Amino acid sequence: MGSAAVQMVCVTLGVLGMIGVIVACAVPLWKVTSFTGNNIVTAQSSQEGLWTSCVVQSTGQQQCKNYESLLELPSELQAGRALTIISCMLSCLSLLVLFCGADFTTCVENEDVKPKISLVAAVGLLLAGLLVLIPVSWTAHIVVQNFNNPLVPANLKRELGACIYVGWGAGVLLLLAGGLLCCFSRLKSGGSGGTAKYYSNSAPTAPSKNYV
What we know:
The protein is α+β, with helices and mostly antiparallel strands and 212 residues long. The protein has helices at 2-26, 75-101, 114-147, 162-190; strands spanning 31-33, 44-48, 52-57, 62-66, 158-160. Strand 2 and strand 3 (52-57) form a beta hairpin. Helix 1 runs antiparallel to helix 2 (75-101) and helix 2 (75-101) runs antiparallel to helix 3. It starts with a helix and ends in a 22-residue tail after the last helix.
C-alpha cells in the first residue's frame, strides 16, 4: 500500500536522523584546530565537543579530558547538551509512537486512530529536528564569527568540525520525515472514502395518489 510505503520511508529517515543526532552528541568534533595564519604548528591538533576536549598528536595518540565545571562552559555548549539530548529522546519516542500507529503494524487496530497517532509522531520528529539544528547552527555561527575576528589569536581560532555537518544532516532528515508524515496524515484524515449523505430538515410529504 502507498500509505505503508510512505510511513516506512519516514521511519527510515527518522532512524538515520536519530543516529546522526547521537553521533553529533557523543563525538567531540564540533570545533577543530584551524591551521591558518601564523598557526603552522601541525604536531598536534585540538578537538572540542559537547562533553570532552581532545588533543591529537601527529603520531596518532589522542588524549581527551572532560570539562571540569558545567557552569564555566560557554552558553552554546550548555544549550547544545540539553537540546541534543532532548532531540535524541524525542526522536526515539516519536519513532516508537510511529511504529504503534503505522499501517504496517497491528499494535493499534482502530483505523480511525492511526492517522492521529501518526500526526503526533510527525510533530515529534519536527520538534526533534528543530532542537538539533538550533545548537549546531549556534555553534557554527560562533566559530565563523571568531574565525573572522582579527582580535582573536590565530592559535585560538577554530574551524567547523564534522559533527556540525552531521548535526545539520540529521536535522534535515528529521524535518523531512516529520514533514512527509505530517502531510500524509493530514491528507488521510481529511479525506473520506464513502459518499456524503445529505438530509433535509423539511417534513416528509405524503405520497401523492393518482385517481382515475
